[in-house]
Amino acid sequence: MVVNVDFSLVGAYMNARINERLVGTSFQASNVQQKPSAQATEELAAGTPPWKETQETQTDDDILSDAFAALKSGNFISASDRKDAAEATDDSTKLFIAYEALESMKTIAQAIEKGLLNDSYLELAEKRLNEGIAEISSFLGSSDFESVTLLASAKLDKTTSEVSIARVAYDYTTNIVHSGAKDDPVEAWAGIDGFNIDLKRVNTSDTLTIDLTGLPDSERTLENVTDLINQQIEAVGASTRFYPQQIGEQNDYGVYEGDDWGMKIAGTQGEKLTFSALSSEPALFMVGGSGREGNDYTLTAQISKWTDLSGTQPTRAATNLLAADATVTTEAADEDSIDLTEHNDSQFIATQTGPDGSIYALVNVENDLNGQKILSDNDLALVKYDSTGRELWSRVVGNSAEITGTDLAVAPDGRVAIAGSTTDKLDAGAFGGGTDGFVIMYSSEGLETSTYQEATRYEDKITSIAFDAAGALYVGGSTTGNIDGNGNAGGTDAYVEKLDILGNRMWINQFGTTGEDTVTAITISDDGTPIVATKSGNETTIQSVSDAEFTANDWSYNIGKANVTTMDFDNDGLYLGGSTLFPERTGSAFTGAAADNYDAFAIKLNVTDTGSGMSVNEDWYQAFGGAGEQGISKIIAHEGSVFLAGTASGSFGSQAIEDGSKQAVVASIDATTGAENWVSNLAGRGGNANATGLTIAVNGSSDLDAFGLPNGLLTTGGTAYVSDSSAARVGDYFTLVVDGEKTVITLEKEDTYRALTFKLNAALGADGSAQARRSSTGDQSLSIKPAEEVVIELIPGEEGSDLLKAIGMTSGFLYDEPSLLDKDTSSDAPPLISLELAQSISLTSTSTSRYDVDEDGKLTEVEKPVTKILSMFDVALAGIRTAYRHAIDDPTLQIDTTSKGKSTQASAYQIAQQANLQAGLDRLSAGSSSSSIYA
After folding, report:
1. Which of 247, 255, 306, 741 lies 20 to 30 Å (CA to CA) from residue 879?
2. What is the pTM of this model?
3. Taking Cα atoms as reference points, which of 695, 604, 647 lies closest to residue 299?
């Protein structure tokens, strides 16, 4: 049989296969040992690459064994390897070391992806992989490469902060004060005589009396009342103005839907307004959460305002939610699409009233808040509200580890302190180990003034804080360590310490038994002495702690088997709130059989000075038991009444709770007898809510509520300071590296993004530029861009002080490659290779598939996170192999430099190989384009 062969096609096919093998595929992905050839002389001299060793396909047992070895603590790059790298004169040694470390890390991801490691290993695996990425990045950054510029992370042409800072606003829009036609009289304003405005400007202060008595109720429209106010303001030469403002959603044409109205105050810089009513009453603000944690409902922080406290039932005047930002996994394309948005939990922890009548609240959040980026899976935020319940500003607090908040206190001068615990350092200061307690202090404007971290080598927690009248802060908590040289009695000790206004320790008293002791609540007596509730085992003792050592004036009172969660002192009366399993109290002792659920209780102790010492006796006891479980989170004594906030199921006093739900409760009892005045409940999403804090604003309820105006200073918005609008804190930093020169960029007090650009541009010079850019909405972000062919490195600050992470800016390398259209651009610099390693990775939910919505609105399975992590390691390993080819001057990577590095012609080696093949084909075909072969 005769077969005709077209040798031109054979030649073309063979040429294509040679080009394919030489130009990329063989050295990018092959794990097969190639036979030595002439061009491999330098390669063999450099050593056999680890990826060229002949290996059989790994079994699952091999992968699992390697993964367990990689999960063990220790470095992925040994000290001896680091020494070898430092002494090596060639690049290949350093590349081999990096490659083997990456291979070791990859086995962990392989074992998870194949299901060889169960979910119990995910946390450890994530920790080890992040440690390895940091180690590889450090190793490559400290190694000098001759043949390439090797980047651990991805290279970007610029980086822009994710956290944008809103333009400073001087406007304020009230809540809805009127529903109906704009020209109709506002019913809520009927019968109100008016209010006062203190208007302050530079060197000028005016008190304006807004007198409504001359305006009949039928003429009290939005236009008439705002005109009356503006006439008063204009008469003193001020610029602030009031206007009617429609409130609600705008349609596609910019028209408001509905007929709800409020007032807009158009303020100006330099003019401050303070409102005061002609008469006022106290109001309560209760914080907690609406809904519950878990898959059924999202737990959302909730604040509510309660008025008419002296009546038979209070009025819930306002309720607002503070939600953490949602995690959006897809956007619904049409009505049939499935919304996979994940709502994150938020939970208020505590609240206190400021001397100006504003309300501060501490909240735990599981995602970003108001556009401010959190730094871990769970961070804190301090939020300020005015007396209307309107949010004024928030300050996010966080570090690389989860943070838990515990308490909040406000000093008489307006300073604010928050307390909690963390497993990492909040700044470059102390971190002892295990869990540390911390206190952060702020000015009344929300500027951080000090950070204090309680840090022994063991477990330290801060549970309660309280300011005295002079502004000193008392801190209560527990420790398993030895604080400031105090001996540990055994197990966990309780402690009380005093901090001055700068956050410095003045004294500490550590005390306890051989068991478990901790301070659960703290308050300050009328004479300034701190009083704490200390739980030891199942017993709780109330005691005074006047100094670093107990004195003869200190006293203690055992209340028995109970948890005391809150205390307040007022006119020689000490009021306790808590819970117990023993519903009966006889002879100042809890008695009877233990119940299945906790019952709430309140106790009054009379604490009097007899002249020869302090006398403490129990005045009354009030139980709030019944079906279900009850607890009290806050107790407040005020002018003959005691107010309580808590969470209950079944019932709380006379108030029944819906079956199957837990609800927030607020109650009033008589301070003299403990008898119930009233109880009210607050249900949340799905019928569930909780109360974690309560505060009283003595002038919180007044005629100003009808106008939507706050009692006190009008706060129109925050500042443009980076420390106010993000999780960044004064002292946070990052390092800018340009051409080997390092500059530390540190955040200072009152730094804006614009101020940071001055620091950055001074360091960048002609090698790049930093800009503070404004969006169409006026929000500002920070951007850094390198000059063409300049490599800029952004090195993050250490954990707890990383400015880049706090403002959402990418660390790593910036490199603006020259345009391919610019034929005059050339560079003698080594080729730049990026390994594309992420700054950090997460293995969360790797054991379950994730889904997205396809074009037809159907759920489709998408890549698991670990699959993307495996791809990341494959890219990084391929990058090392490419760098190695440059290191040994492999001819298959050399390019024709006659056209300034832009030629796509084959290399000399490729051309020679093709010529040899063509010559063979020509001889085979005897100069003919086809031939006959007999078979």
Report:
1. 741
2. 0.77
3. 647
